[in-house]
Automatic annotation (TrEMBL):
This is beta-N-acetylhexosaminidase. The keyword Transmembrane does not apply. It holds the Pfam family Glyco_hydro_20. Its EC number is 3.2.1.52. Keywords: Hydrolase. CDD domains: GH20_GcnA-like. The keyword Hydrolase applies. It comes from the Eukaryota.
Length: 565
């Protein structure tokens, strides 16, 4: 039997040891919690992202990149409901943000209220877009042109006095004080509707005209500015200083093409190396030929606090391209990746991010080029090119099969996607897909084959119904009936395309966008075919007698030529 005193002592020792053990465990947990407090959000983010596919990581040389997708909205902005469907996919594909170039679709008011599109977004629409982006963990970077590409402002008579060159409404003049009243109002409205942005792109590309405004002579005497580059730096500094005064923490991005002409002394004078982030844009299949890659230019861009690049997934091959050359845009990404894999360790250690641009028009006055919903496959091929697992795949003349399979799966397509114009005109199956706007993609793919069908019909019709027959109402009725039989299926296919295209487009855009596209690329040719079809129908039905030859009368032709002179 253990004496009571020894029992009590043993129990106390056990209790103390247990207490020490418990305290040590809690102390360790508490220490670890505090030690890792700064990375707690990152850990949570990884937990939240545990359902995401791990290979959808965009990086260079194991260095994560800020990867943004650009939406050029001028004159053809999607409905907000389209972004609601698209933004979750962007997040799934590894995209970190969106660059929104609203142009005339922004809900401007006050002194610039007249510049907005008649179907511009409302302020509530912008707030909804921002919230949709936030819900899908996408950062929002607005893009507002503040020097060149201000056609949507300067085209109007009330702002024509601000044109640097009175004849051309592209570039605003820094030589007039009212310029800054107008630009600051536009900037204020952007900042008000984007109160939480980290990045703001202020354009400044393709500034073609300098010091041609009548007020510039006096302006030069007052400021001492001697040349176009001094003027560019002066204007850029005015815009940067104004925004930084309003919102000191916003990082400002600027296109590189005019900026690259400023020497180091000028960059240091205005502190541009720290206050702005150049965006080097190249949409070539081989971007290594660009001036900013070679020699001193590359070194100079490496001195900025931060550097960005811009590639493209649409709108960068031809002003009136309607078909995306997927392989071209993919090669554009690959070329950038190769260059960065070399320069990121050497000249461009400051490289921060990429903007994947998707241009809708080459400028405000030009036609729509590749449509956004049609170009979603090109967008995803371009994004996926940056995924770590696809950067080292062996390549041949075609896109890697693993990449094609990934894109096909992500877009839920029934068969292989079309990669170029030749595919659209071939017998390759038309894929049925389930991505947002897939109906536009499928209808545009089908159009090439429809035109092939029309051309085959016309090759038969042209044997028997020429322009002369139409002009002089002179037709072979039996052959005309045969022509109708050949033309009828082609006409039906064209009309079916119109209906399907308009329906699919109206799910994405306001209805005027489909009409603009059809008027630009379809209706002229369709009308020629349909008028000939109508003539043959009428002639077959009504032709009962024919004039004697000659048809036409040669004297009438000579009279027409005389009148033309």
């Amino acid at each position: 039997m253990i004496p009571f005193r020894r029992l009590t002592h043993s129990l106390i020792v056990v209790f103390v040891l247990t207490l020490v053990l418990i305290l040590s465990v809690f102390t360790k947990i508490f220490f670890q919690a505090n030690h890792h407090h700064s990375s707690h959000s990152a850990i949570l983010e990884k937990i939240v992202d545990s359902n995401d596919q791990q290979f959808d990581i965009i990086q260079i040389d194991n260095h994560p990149l800020a990867f943004y997708v650009h939406f050029d909205l001028k004159g053809a902005a999607p409905k907000v409901s389209y972004f609601e469907k698209l933004f979750p996919l962007l997040h799934q594909w590894g995209v970190k943000g969106i660059c929104m170039e609203y142009e005339d679709m922004f809900p401007f008011d006050g002194i610039v209220r007249s510049i907005k599109h008649k179907q511009a977004y409302t302020k509530e629409d912008i707030e909804t877009i921002n919230q949709l982006a936030k819900d899908n963990r996408l950062d929002v970077m607005p893009l507002l042109q503040t020097y060149g590409h201000l056609e949507f402002l300067l085209k109007l008579n009330e702002f024509s006095d601000l044109r640097e060159n009175p004849k051309y409404p592209q570039v605003i003049t820094p030589c007039v004080d009212r310029t800054y009243t107008v630009l600051y109002s536009m900037i204020d409205q952007y900042l008000k509707l984007h109160p939480d942005i980290r990045f703001f792109h202020i354009g400044h590309d393709e500034v073609y005209y300098f010091l041609t405004h009548p007020a510039c002579a006096e302006f030069q005497r007052a400021t001492g500015i001697q040349n176009q580059y001094e003027l560019f730096a002066y204007h850029l500094n005015k815009i940067v200083s104004y925004i930084k005064k309003r919102s000191p923490n916003i990082e400002l991005l600027v296109w590189h093409d005019v900026l690259q002409n400023l020497n180091l002394q000028m960059l240091q004078r205005y502190n541009f190396l720290n206050s702005i982030h150049p965006v080097l844009w190249s949409y070539r299949e081989d971007m290594q030929v660009e001036g900013f890659v070679i020699g001193s230019q590359a070194d100079l861009f490496g001195q900025y606090k931060s550097l960005w690049g811009a590639t493209a997934f649409k709108g960068a091959t031809h002003e009136i391209a309607t078909i995306s050359d997927v392989k071209h845009y993919y090669e554009n990404q690959v070329s950038w990746i190769k260059q960065l894999q070399t320069y990121h360790r050497t000249k461009w250690r400051n490289f921060h991010g990429v903007i994947l641009t998707g241009w809708s028009r080459y400028d405000h006055f030009l036609s729509l080029c590749e449509l956004l919903p049609y170009s979603i496959p090109s967008m995803l091929f371009s994004i996926a090119a940056w995924h770590k697992q696809f950067q080292s795949l062996p390549r041949n003349q075609n896109l890697p099969h693993q990449l094609q399979n990934y894109v096909q799966q992500q877009l839920q397509c029934s068969s292989a996607l079309h990669l170029n114009t030749q595919d659209h005109f071939s017998t390759k199956p038309i894929p049925k897909c389930r991505f947002p706007g897939a109906g536009v993609y499928e209808s545009l793919i089908s159009l090439g084959r429809i035109w092939n069908q029309v051309e085959q019909a016309e090759s038969f019709v042209n044997k028997y119904v020429t322009d002369l027959h139409v002009k002089y109402n002179y037709i072979h009725v039996k052959r005309g009936e045969e022509c109708l039989e050949v033309l009828r299926p082609a006409i039906h296919a064209l009309q079916s395309f119109i209906n399907l295209f308009i329906h699919s487009m109206n799910e994405v855009f306001p209805e005027q966008v489909a009409i603009e596209w059809l008027e630009t690329y379809f209706m002229q040719r369709y009308n020629l075919v349909y008028r000939r079809y109508e003539f043959i129908q009428r002639a077959v039905r009504e032709q009962k007698s024919w004039d004697t030859r000659p048809i036409p009368n040669i004297n009438k032709l000579e009279a027409n030529l005389t009148n033309a002179r």
